[in-house]
Amino acid sequence: MPTVLVHKYLEVPAEYPAKGICVIFGNDSFLIRQAENTLREKLLAGDDGEFSLVLFEGSKDLKFPEVYSAAASRSMFGDSSKLVIIDDADNFVSKNRPLLEDYAANPSTSSTMLLLLTTFPVNTKLHTIVAEKGLIITANSLSEKEMPGWVTKWAKQRYKLACDRAAAELMVQMVGAVHGLLDQELAKLSVLTKDKITLELVEQNSGSWSVKETFYIIDLALEGRTAESISELNKLLAGAGRQDSKVESFFGAFSGSLRRFATATQIILEAERNKKPMTVKTALERAGVPVFALGKAEQQLRKLTRFRGADLSDWLLQANLALRGVSRADKRFVIETLLIKISHPSLQRW
Fold first, then answer.
1. Does the pLDDT value for residue 77 go beyond 60?
2. Are 81 and 44 in contact (CB under 8 A)?
3. Per-residue pLDDT for 112 more than 70?
């Protein structure tokens, strides 16, 4: 059976029945666990399911005979399916590859062996055998651009809620493009609504105070309100915790939004050089600005002007290098300087 993407598997698991040997691999632990749990539910249905499950920790000094013995023996409940899971199995596979190849070619008919891996190279003999005899599920994170679509689908599939596209885009912006965090956010919002997750619901209830404050500081700077943006930065950095770490976290969120403005500016300038003028809104769309934020982003980029927009990439690079130790400047001073550059009034107009 060809390799199946985890999102497809979770939508219609019945179309991808578990075989004698299965592999779930990828870089997203949340998706791996979702696929594992779904497979467990399919194989271990019934009150006695837990007695047909054997778990091993692959990162430890696990011996193949121990796993083989568990997989080869029948469940204590007769015809019940038996599932043998090796978690964090990369090291186990590396040490026992020839034995696993032999097993995968002729797996037990009384159980299913499931390997949970980070990587599973397609050019290996084991991959080829499992693809032929078993089931392989890839569980890699989606890109930030793809994530809003996943949020709307997952809200419907897991929480039986409709979710506006704009609400999903804002949620990704505020929480981050991380499946596990977005699932937690959907779980929280599902308690607050019975049928639909709206943009207003996300605005009022999503994201931590620090995340919302970061977006507020960005807005102030792009509106040219220099003193207010620095004052809010001081509030954000106050309190417990290492200030350097807070500054670096702020810059991570801050720079992501500004890079879109830098990219949009370059798109506009390139279009003009090719004598194919482009609107600010279109450039922002191509730069990855979410639909719900286009109106405000267009106003902000016009205030920023193309001249400062063209310098944004260099400013962000300089700030990033300074924060990483290239400069001896205080990290807080680095961010304040960047805010001043962004918010300083300019007589130039679009």
1. no
2. yes
3. yes
Cα–Cα distance measured from residue 158 to residue 224, given in angstroms and rounded to the nearest whole number: 43
pTM: 0.67
Q: Which residues are registered as beta bridge partners of 5?
A: 138
56 phi, psi to nearest 5 deg: -125, 150
- Residue 207 region, left (φ>0) first, then alpha (ψ -120 to 50), else beta? left
Alpha-carbon distance of 1 to 289, in angstroms, equals 39
Q: Are 254 and 230 in contact (CB under 8 A)?
A: no
State residue 47's pLDDT score. 55
9/15 Cα distance (integer angstroms): 8
- Residue 182 to residue 184: CA distance in whole angstroms: 5
pLDDT of residue 348: 44
Angstrom distance (rounded) from CA 313 to CA 287: 13
Rounded Cα gap, residues 297 and 108, in angstroms: 59
CA-nearest of 74, 114, 109 to 93 is 114
Is 24:58 a contact under the CB 8 Å cutoff? no
| Whether the Cβ atoms of residue 43 and residue 75 lie closer than 8 Å to each other | no
